[in-house]
UniProtKB/TrEMBL annotation:
This is endo-polygalacturonase. Belongs to the glycosyl hydrolase 28 family. It is an enzyme of class 3 (hydrolase). The active site is at H226. One of its GO terms (cellular component) is extracellular region.
Length: 368
């Protein structure tokens, strides 16, 4: 070998060694089965192809910071009697592109009309702990609660679908009741969460905020189910800074609700603004603020302070069925403090409900 070639080889080797280590993650990982996951998550692009996750196993993605995930095929989850979750994603600054691909939880195998109180079910189905953006993921047939959000940093969810419409029908285990039960769309316990342009067809809360600050729920569609809820609120939690706007709530038990446990202490719900929402055909309540949970408009507790609950900055129209109540406010002694600006709340269709320990409601003309 001539000296010239030797120099070339050394130069080449040197150039390779000099490449910064970080770019070793600048690769594309491919997942077509669970056994591909551990290698694929070493790359900052992860492509997921269609496959079936074996029953009893979590499809768990623990991603490098800044990873982009592309879902390129439908994901089925095998049926097994266990607690789940079926899917878990962790990581910071993630771009998760669901591309409208379907995650099928196999609900029909589990549903018995009893939800969490019945047989053991994967609950929740989808655990979201990442920050970043989570887009266009379509879930069908969640065994019980669908998305549980417990994010490590700011998170924007958009274009998500939870379609548990098959759970509206009875099956051979549900004794004539709708088979799906406790199929919450989104359960949020985290700060800085935006959920937008998503839709939920289910048999329980469309959204339930259990704790967190700076949460936006906008331009979503909720069908069936129990509507958009803050709570139930337990002891020692804070919900603060919530915007609920531009949503459409259809055929639900309640459109908007704040429910706090009767026995809860040392908690607070403050600064919640509803605007530009519509709800139609609510079967029990348009708006319900109730401090007696688990009772419904029972004897209220007063250990959760509720303040700054406003319907302003754009009209919210709630229409309920004839026997339903348009609005009920059931607060404990001195635990709801106002005034609240309800000048953009319009209600129609039903009766006016109970008003107990209610602060001054500016602009709401109901005979309470
Ligand atoms: C799980 O059971 C449901 C309901 O019977 C069925 O639709 C689904 O295909 C099953 N999932 C798999 C992966 O076999
Ligand atoms: C109320 O919450 C919104 C949304 O998080 C926030 O922008 C606003 O500053 C809060 N207002 C007060 C008085 O804290
Ligand atoms: C109203 O909602 C109920 C379920 O609460 C549903 O059975 C009924 O079909 C709905 N009516 C219309 C007109 O959509």
């Amino acid at each position: 070998m001539g000296i010239f070639s030797l120099v070339l080889i050394s130069l080449f080797t040197f150039a390779k060694a000099a490449v910064p280590r970080a770019t070793s993650n600048n690769c594309v990982g491919t997942i077509s089965s669970l056994s591909d996951v551990s290698a694929a998550v070493q790359c900052t692009t992860v492509n997921i192809h269609s496959f079936t996750v074996p029953g009893g196993r979590t499809f768990s993605l623990d991603l490098l910071q800044g990873t982009t995930v592309n879902v390129l095929g439908d994901i089925q989850f095998g049926n097994a009697t266990w607690k789940g979750p079926l899917f878990l994603v962790t990581g910071q600054d993630i771009t998760f592109n669901g591309n409208g691909q379907v995650f099928d939880g196999g609900g029909g195998y589990y549903w018995d009309g009893l939800g969490a109180k019945g047989s053991t079910k994967p609950n929740p189905m989808m655990k979201i702990k990442m920050s970043g953006t989570f887009s266009d993921v379509h879930v069908v047939n969640s065994p019980a609660r669908c998305f549980s959000i417990n994010n490590v940093g700011p998170l924007v969810i958009s274009g998500a679908v939870v379609d548990d419409s098959q759970g509206d029908y009875p099956n051979d285990k549900s004794n004539g009741r709708p088979a799906g039960h406790n199929t919450d769309g989104f359960d949020v316990s985290g700060n800085d969460v935006v959920i937008r342009k998503s839709s939920v067809i289910n048999q329980d809360d469309c959204l339930a905020i259990n704790r967190g600050k700076n949460i936006v729920f906008e331009d979503n569609y909720c069908h069936g189910g129990h509507g958009v809820s803050i709570g139930s609120i337990t002891s020692d939690v804070v919900v603060e800074g919530v915007i609920v706007q531009g949503n459409e709530v259809v055929n639900s038990v309640t459109a908007f609700r704040i429910k706090t446990d009767k026995t809860a202490t040392n908690s607070r719900v403050s600064n919640v603004t509803y605007s530009g929402n519509t709800a139609r055909n609510c079967s029990s309540y348009g708006l319900l603020i109730d401090q007696s949970y688990p009772a419904v408009v029972g004897t209220p507790g007063n250990g959760v302070a509720i303040s700054d609950i406003n319907f302003n900055q754009g009209s919210t129209e709630l229409s309920v069925v004839q026997d339903a109540q348009m609005v009920a406010v059931n607060c404990g002694k001195n635990s709801c403090t106002g005034p609240w600006d309800w000048s953009d709340l319009k209600t129609s269709g039903g009766k006016i409900g109970k008003f107990q320990n209610t602060p001054t409601l500016i602009g709401y003309a109901a005979p309470y």
